[in-house]
Specification:
mainly alpha
Length: 73
């Protein structure tokens, strides 16, 4: 089997970037909801900090740790 062409590699990277963006947007939904709860006075700031910390240590790092399912060489 021949190695993929530059065009194919580029297309795969673009698709991977789109998929990663969708995954990150989905992962940010709890952070967005928490911000809304904070603004409405139903959430304490410390709770929001914890939610942001969990996002930062989890989904936000996946692309850089090699753990993201859409990684393309």
């Amino acid at each position: 089997m021949e190695p993929p062409t530059k065009a194919v590699k580029r297309a795969l990277r673009e698709l991977a970037a789109r998929a990663q963006g969708k995954d990150l947007r989905r992962a940010l939904l709890p952070v967005s909801a928490a911000l809304d709860e904070l603004k409405a006075g139903r959430l304490e700031s410390g709770d929001l900090v914890q939610i942001i910390h969990e996002f930062h240590d989890g989904p936000a790092r996946e692309p850089y740790n090699g753990g993201h399912r859409w990684a393309v060489a």
